[in-house]
Design a protein that fits this description.
Distance between the termini: 38 Å
CATH architecture: 3-Layer(aba) Sandwich
CATH class: Alpha Beta
Strand order of the largest sheet: 1-2-3
CATH topology: Rossmann fold
Number of domains: 1
Shape: globular
Strand content: 5-15%
Radius of gyration: 14 Å
Number of helices: 4
Number of strands: 3
CATH superfamily: Adenosylhomocysteinase-like
């Protein structure tokens, strides 16, 4: 298997990944989807299934991050600019426009 990295979208899962990192047991770079604005603003509040779509987007961003040869096996947060883009798009679809920071 040619696994490049992983995503986790549960509080318990992210805590376990961080513990593995602290114990030097994390085998792949990981993105903590659970900590992303696009996760807790939509999926946690409305149960919209937003996390599935957001996970795909975050995996795509992980692909670009992984093009770097200096990537460590640790738990990464979702890049703010990508997370904000997802939040803005979801709000736009719901008819809400944001002109400032999310």
């Amino acid at each position: 298997m040619n696994l490049m990295g992983i995503c986790e979208e549960t509080t318990t899962g992210v805590a376990r990944l961080k513990k593995k990192y602290q114990n030097n047991q994390l085998r792949y770079p990981a993105v903590a989807i659970n900590d992303a604005k696009s996760k807790y603003l939509f999926d946690n509040r409305y149960g919209t299934g937003q996390s599935t779509w957001a996970s795909i987007m975050h995996l795509t961003s992980l692909h670009y991050i992984l093009s770097s040869d200096n990537l460590e096996n640790k738990v990464y947060q979702v890049p703010d600019e990508i997370d904000e883009m997802i939040v803005r798009e979801k709000l736009r679809v719901e008819g809400i426009e944001i002109n400032g920071e999310v």
